[in-house]
Specification:
mainly alpha, 40% helix, 0% strand, 104 residues
Length: 104
Amino acid sequence: MNAIVADTNKRRVPTSLDVQRIRAGKEPRGTLWRVGNLSNLLRSDTLRGYLVTADGSPIVDDAGRRVRRAEPILTDETWRALQTQLSDRATNRKPRPRVKGLYK
């Protein structure tokens, strides 16, 4: 994921924050992508077209059905496969060695 973030920043792909500013007619701030931002985006149901709150909770209508705002970018099958891959990567991560002198 680090390589994707580095490449995205190198190519100056705007973050969602900068896209919102551009759509509002404002100057983008040049906000950099971070691994956490990309991870949150890839885990979001918005990729399937659903509305979610700021904390990622689903928005439902009066009948309790999920509200879809847009056409999905990913099919449900592809999104589920992506979630499996992300979860497997998170589970199988090796701990980073600590740098001496930085932590007590």
